[in-house]
Design goal:
The chain is α/β, with parallel strands linked by helices. The protein has two domains: about 70 residues, no CATH class; about 150 residues, Nucleotidyltransferase, domain 5, CATH 3.30.420. It contains ten helices and seven strands. Strands 1, 2, 3, 4, 5, 6 and 7 form a seven-stranded mixed beta sheet that branches. The longest helix is centred in the N-terminal third of the chain and has 14 residues. The protein starts with 7 loop residues before the first helix and ends in a 6-residue tail after the last helix. This is Transposase.
Length: about 250
């Protein structure tokens, strides 16, 4: 018997953003929920596509549909379906390094653009913004050697919030000024080599563990904790799924 991950409540929140509804162009899908369960099973277990249980259907059919949805940006839309960007008190940002399995190498350079080489070998880095309730807001994937500050503005620019909370890796004059320009607080500890130490709210900074716990949660998805996918788009799709469902599904 296959253990299902989606509850009725979670399904109700994402059903409307998936293709195949009545009125959509093309064929109406009767099995969207079971298909999403199949993709979650692959992401959660980290198994090869060929090992997908037969109860989900032919593995190649499921994989091709997963790829079509990835090209259409469906998996990224799911993140926005579970996020509520209308009232964001605080935004917390951070990044994590993901080691790549040997199976992830070998694709053409453009198709593996987020696979880089750092001290840990081949790695990908996930940059993430969550709100104070632990809901995902933005996700970016880069090569492992990319610095945190490189993606900082892209993570927070579209968002309106009262404070941006981050660690010392984001301590940059330009970034702090860009936050203040939106009338938000920059809750970022100054680096030790700064001559003038900038003041920040230590009380708010203690909440930074929200984004750290979020990373711990999504790494329950084995296909996110280790990169097995050759194609950057496929890995990002699984990371998007983990962000959308990680805090919500039954582990």
């Amino acid at each position: 018997m296959i253990r299902k991950l989606l509850s009725d409540e979670v399904w109700a929140r994402i059903e409307s953003v998936l293709p195949g509804k009545e009125g959509d162009p093309g064929r109406t899908a009767a099995d969207n929920r079971w298909f999403v369960e199949a993709v979650l099973w692959i992401g959660r277990t980290g198994c090869p596509w060929r090992d997908l249980p037969k109860a989900f259907g032919r593995w190649h059919t499921v994989y091709m549909r997963f790829s079509r949805w990835r090209r259409k940006g469906v998996w990224e839309r799911v993140i926005h379906a579970v996020a509520d960007e209308t009232e964001i008190k605080h935004v917390l940002i951070d990044s994590t390094i993901v080691r790549a399995h040997q199976h992830s190498s070998g694709a053409r350079k453009k198709r593996s653009a987020t696979l880089g080489r750092s001290r840990g070998g081949l790695t990908t880095q996930l940059h993430l913004a969550v709100d104070d309730a632990g809901r995902p807001l933005r996700l970016i994937a880069t090569e492992g050697q990319v610095t945190d500050i490189s993606c900082a503005n892209e993570l927070v620019e579209p968002l309106r919030t009262g404070a941006v909370i981050a660690d010392k890796g984001y301590d940059s004059n330009a970034f702090v000024e860009s936050i203040r320009a939106t009338r938000a607080k920059a809750v970022i500890p100054p680096r030790s080599n700064r001559k003038t130490k900038r003041r920040y709210s230590r009380v708010l900074y203690r909440t930074r563990n929200i984004v750290e716990r979020f990373f711990n949660r999504i790494k329950h998805f084995h296909r996110v904790a280790t990169r097995y996918d050759k194609l950057s788009g496929n890995y990002f799709a699984f990371a998007s799924l983990a962000c959308a469902f990680g805090p919500l599904v039954r582990m």
